[in-house]
Amino acid sequence: MASQLPLTISATEDRENDGSYGAWRRKFCREYAALLEATRENTNRSLRASVSAEGRQISCQKECTSCCHHYVSVSLAQGMVIVAHLYRTKGLLQQFLDRYEEWREKAEAIAEEIDGIRNRALASSTPIARVIMDTRPLSTRYFLANVRCPFLVDGLCSIYPVRPLACSGHHSVSPPEWCAPDSQQKPEIRRMTPDDRDLLGMIRVGDPWLTLFELALPTMVYRLLTEGSAAMTSLMHSQIKSAPPGRADVQTGVAKQ
Ligand code: SF4
Ligand code: SF4
After folding, report:
1. Is the CB of 76 under 6 A from ligand 2?
2. Which of 77, 179, 194, 252 is the most exposed place for a label (fewest CB within 10 A)?
3. Where are the domains of the chain?
4. Sign of dihedral through CA atoms 252, 217, 224, 214?
5. Ligand 2 centroid vs 26 CA: distance in angstroms?
């Protein structure tokens, strides 16, 4: 299967695994994946407790996929964990590449506009409420374009164990059909963001910006696969070099709107 991958991707993987950088990257991805898993469990526990305290129920079900047509962002660190997973499961990597071109054709331009607003906001410490207001019309356009996430395969998330926190923290307490783009009803969505302790744990495991800098999920993964994490780290620093480190309230990984 590896021999069918484009040469750029195989060459980037070789570079990503090379020498002391490769050893650091693998260790970072292992540690970060464990932190993500713990964060996912903590946020899900809080979500279930708060929903059941209201006497409500989460209505999300297997193969319910309208929310997989929203704009979803990931941090560079989460993107690295997803790519490490794809390196271990080359069939999934190939499936992503097969679906990526369709996504790029239909959704990349809107996603780039959203990414641009979000990262300019990150560099200037703009409050999250303002970012949501500025990006909402674009997020709505993205959703109405009805483009599936390239990781959605046969109605299921193909990277479920390492899916973005934006996905695992997004739940509806309304009937599932209300999430469809043509629904007249608006679903009541419960978004769980990491609590301070989990967020600080993620920020402390490496360069804090690896947790804060985000791009649309397909863009981040494709660029990591073709350019590598060192190049993406340089890009991140060039885009946010004027921003003060440690601000965690600008973006929190939750981008479905
Ligand atoms: S958020 Fe909506 S579309 Fe997504 S799984 Fe839940 S009910 Fe289904
Ligand atoms: S990563 Fe998985 S859960 Fe998230 S939007 Fe894509 S297919 Fe859906």
Report:
1. no
2. 252
3. 21-240
4. negative
5. 23
Per-residue pLDDT of the chain (257 residues; tens, 9 = 90+): 444 678 899 999 999 999 999 999 999 999 999 999 999 999 999 999 999 999 999 999 988 999 999 999 999 999 999 999 999 999 999 999 999 999 999 999 999 999 999 988 888 878 888 888 889 999 999 999 999 999 999 999 999 999 999 999 999 999 999 999 889 999 999 988 888 888 888 888 888 889 989 999 999 999 999 999 999 999 888 887 655 444 433 333 334 44
Is the distance from CB of 36 to CB of 44 less than 8 angstroms?
Answer: no
User: What predicted TM-score, i.e. pTM, was given to this entire model?
Assistant: 0.90
Q: What distance in Å separates the CA atoms of residue 249 and residue 15, rounded to the nearest whole number?
A: 34
Ligand at minimal distance from the CA of 62 is 1
182 CA to centre of ligand 1 in angstroms? 14
Regarding the beta carbon of 142 and ligand 2, being less than 6 Å apart is answered no
Which amino acid residue places its CA nearest to atom 6 of ligand 1?
Answer: 60
